[in-house]
Specification:
homodimer, 434 residues, alpha+beta, BirA Bifunctional Protein, domain 2, Rossmann fold, 2 domains, 9-stranded mixed sheet, 5-stranded mixed sheet, 23 strands, 30% helix, globular
């Protein structure tokens, strides 16, 4: 892709309400822009990143025998009345009226709709289990939308739902989804922890959260230094009064409380901050009973489906990557989430030899399947292009500059800042090994 | 994909309100289901087809130097007030109020939002032209939602917007988009006509519609038998009274009126029915002026952007394919839109040799990149599987049955019904030539 051809409006201006690095940098680097409170547009580079995350989620879910569907975003209120959530969810559930004065809801999640979809269409245990998911727009009318993509009102979520003939089979799938989610977060290049969690309002009996570790995380989680164990703060204190007071404690006080607590593996427990980016629930039959969705089991008896439900905050992950991986100059994308792997910076695109050399490398890398951008802008100077490279956060840059006369270009690692001179003929091999 | 693993709830029941073949068959074959008036869910096979259409649209637009974005679906009413459309669009524009009593709109199209996005981000003629598009959910609160995906309220649309420094450059892009749209509709395997159209409420000065030819089309269009010419009925009658009365005429009366009318090429004109599936407009500066979106031209003068706007009804095309291509037994997908190219029907999946032979062909075709389904269901009989094959409308079936003992399988062409015996060893070669 040519930089001059893509609409990438980088800017030095930081929105006044943007306190988090991801919020600041995603806007400054031209990935997103705000269209209203908690409402964001994805500009071309933002759309590329969003699609990359989406693709990884889809690939791993499809490989885990889940099937993608797409449910209506506007859902009739009747469904929500049946489950009792029309009442229970309060104002976060945005109700709307159509021209005939009928009531609908902008879906914040879709348990009701998916149960209604499966109801009377799966009638026998022989057709179970089934795991259906969608990656679709959601709306939650947050009281205080903030932090950019982290807590928007309209957002992109993957929501999945599995249907089973028994609790045991649902728990098998729950474990299978935990493994699948681990693959997804690992592929995304994220440092994350799976933590035991309370299931909250959704009404389940067992649940785990996937937290991307970052200093700016809204959640405090307990992790073991020796094993994979992680938990919500609530879960390791048995005294209810202590649990209720946890939110009032400072970080230091929390750390103090953790002293002496041991993991079952014997390791030390400590606190850290996490961004909740995934959540899996053992849901049971709450919704299938409420919506009277049943199947015939192997004894010919009518049973409500046992369900699991599984969410991933796709657009939130876009912000979480940057919360975990940035510096004072801008974004540092992981290899799997980067809009392009390499940014070829032509120092002075007005100089024909530099532009030609850049284009040659560009074509060579592109022909070899490497995702490459060339900053061919004629009106911008080298310093400006370097600034954009650092702000946008491509993993690597190849600088075509003065060393060209010696047959060399400079490869820069965005994360480490390391610079390496590479001979023109060696670039492809060098890049392939990155 | 194994039939037994995918959620494909085919049914013999036709919804009482489904008068169009696409509406009936898409529901009966388990592609979609209705969740409310004009609101549809896509089940796994429906999602696959929708994604295929979407992919073709994206590939051709990207090849035509357009960049994909994703705009918020919920847009602030202020934008619509500025353009005057909050008033003008009437009840089709669904207004909603959030928890703080602020007014928003469910986007039926996004001229205002895209102008606001580009405003102050493109400031110089040097950064023009730009062509941005999205493929995103839209909502139009139709008074009478009907015909399934053909006239739903929530639907998937590709909407594109181009920005230019001059009317001439906008017209160049308009012609470029016409060619791009022709490529898209051709790749989709559709019989279509580009027709001269009135631009309607959107406020343009020149526009063309892309009609998929089908008996059930809501629009009557004029086509030339000798050349590519096509037009809306209104456009060839100069007398306004005649134009106003056209909608009251029967099809026969219309045909009569056409007698003697000649195309400029000398060919005969006749009437046919079309489904509007694409629409391109020369929009001019209506929206950029209303929203005060300007750039500096080469003389340093501030000018409003000249715009073009380009729509494709992505979910409507899914229905249009079937309106154009079906028979009394079900869907007949075109090769590019089919969920899978080949359905391997194992006559009796309980017979091990048949199932094994089927699986072997399945793996072989899959390994060669052919999109293949195997109907491995054990509880269903051959006749039922054939019925599903015809209802769903895969382009071809390979039947594994009695002839297996002679080393033969039967290949069936869904469209022509033609049956061919093929030797087991020749299948891959045979299929590759289809």
């Amino acid at each position: 892709m040519k930089f001059s051809k893509l609409f990438i409006p980088t800017t030095k201006e930081t929105p006044s309400d943007a306190t988090l690095p991801s919020h600041q940098f995603l806007i400054r680097a031209g990935f997103i822009n705000q269209q209203g409170s908690g409402l964001y547009n994805y500009m071309p580079m933002g759309k590329i990143v969003l699609d990359k995350i989406r693709k990884i989620v889809k690939e791993e879910l499809d490989a885990a025998d889940c099937s993608e569907v797409q449910l209506g975003f506007v859902t009739p209120i009747e469904l929500w009345d049946k489950s009792g959530r029309a009442e229970k969810m309060g104002k976060e559930l945005l109700r709307i009226k159509d021209r005939k004065d009928n009531d609908f809801v902008l879906s914040p999640t879709n348990e009701e709709a998916i149960v209604e979809l499966v109801k009377n269409r799966i009638t026998s245990f022989k057709d179970l289990p089934v795991n259906l998911y969608q990656i679709n727009t959601k709306f939650r009318d947050e009281a205080r939308p903030r932090f950019g993509l982290m807590r928007g009102r309209e957002f992109l979520m993957k929501d999945g739902y599995s249907f089973h003939e028994s609790v045991e089979d649902m728990q098998r799938e729950f474990a299978h989804m935990e493994e699948t989610y681990k693959k997804i977060f690992t592929r995304l290049g994220l440092d994350f922890r799976v933590v035991e969690a309370d299931s909250g309002a959704i009404g389940g009996t067992g649940s785990k959260e996937f937290h991307v570790l970052a200093d700016s995380g809204e959640d405090t989680i307990i992790v073991c230094d020796s094993c994979e164990y992680g938990a919500n703060i609530e879960t390791i204190f048995e005294d209810e009064d202590v649990v209720n007071s946890l939110n009032d404690l400072t970080y230091e006080e929390l750390q103090e409380k953790a002293v002496g607590k041991k993991c079952s593996c014997g390791g030390e427990l400590s606190y850290t901050k996490g961004i909740e980016a995934g959540h899996i629930f053992q849901l049971g039959s709450t919704y299938s009973e409420a919506l009277d969705a049943k199947f015939l089991d192997s004894n010919g008896k009518s049973q409500p489906f046992q369900m699991g439900t599984y969410g991933i905050g796709v657009s939130r992950i876009m912000a979480a990557v940057i919360e975990q991986s940035h510096d004072e100059r801008g974004c540092i994308w992981t290899k799997e989430t980067a809009p392009f792997m390499i940014d070829i910076i032509v120092s002075s695109a007005k100089k024909e030899d530099e532009l030609n050399a850049g284009m040659k490398i560009y074509e060579e890398l592109k022909d070899n399947g490497i995702e490459v951008m060339i900053d061919d802008r004629k009106k911008e100077r080298f310093g400006f292009k370097m600034g954009d490279f650092e702000l946008i956060g491509f993993p690597y840059a190849i600088v075509i500059g003065k060393k060209l006369q010696d047959g060399l270009v400079e490869l820069i690692d965005r994360k480490t800042g390391e610079k390496t001179d590479v001979a023109l003929d060696d670039i492809l091999d060098f890049v392939k090994k990155l």
